[in-house]
């Protein structure tokens, strides 16, 4: 058996008593808590960013194609389903789906209050299966092949404010000249927790907006584009613009709702600072604790040197000891971080205030490359820090150290 490994094994915290055992335990706990909290921080950050992004993209798509207009009026300038983009978008494999829509400003009258809203008209290509996750009462819209069903979906915020329930009929007064109105039935209530949408938008039928604006059946307000991540955003924009008509423009949701996405990017900085501080404390503690262990074993170092052991062999003893502490800390830290993340992902026992955080519970993202990077980074930094106190061994004088008390 390797002599350095044998001695390091005899010095392990299970076989050492008193002060040494306490020092070993503190070192392991410091590393484990640092790694565990770092993993949880990135889990929560990724889950939070993904959840908010998915809610925004689910409501608007990753991109919107709209008609160029020089007007600042509420009315949209219609585009056509005969456009070159609509006829050829399937050539781009990264586009997973598209949805046609139109928007129209209106006043919605409840029993005692009136609220300004933006009616988003959707058609049969609307992904009801995806949006149903936000449905909390009632059902999704029924969009007939011909004509309109005069159905409406409202947010929980608007339903509470206007005292609306599923099955009630409500009047929408549309902003146009001359003003027009429609009586519609509330068939569903949704909640996305995003105030940009819940406080403003109601879902109706695209054909209703066509009838109000005197559009033909092939005219729409715009197209929402949903993409996968097989291409970078820059390449996606370039390829979409290559088949885009000259009178159409491409709007990216991240730019349209920049205040939300800038806020998500800002969270990255907070987490990096937090993880950096935790990592620094954990790694610094590891170096300090190993230095204390070396000082505690000064007499042993002197005896080994007196018996002819080389500095390299003695350093290996403490390197093995430090490596054992590191491995135990990593294992326990991963169990803590991944274990708590798994429990939260399955049982959602940590709630959040939706009004402040846009979701009702702490979300979890399983980003394995990040977890592996954290483990590798802490391992590398710890091994580098371990080398600093170990170098002190070469300066220990055997005679003085044997008499060291």
UniProtKB/TrEMBL annotation:
**ABC3 transporter permease C-terminal domain residues:** 273-398
Per the database entry, which stretches of residues form a coiled coil? none
Q: Does the keyword Cell inner membrane apply?
A: no
Q: Which UniProt keywords apply?
A: Cell membrane, Membrane, Transmembrane, Transmembrane helix
Membrane spanning stretches: 21-45, 271-295, 325-343, 368-393
MacB-like periplasmic core domain: residues covered: 26-236
Q: Tell me what this protein is called.
A: ABC transporter permease
- Organism in which the protein naturally occurs: Algoriphagus namhaensis
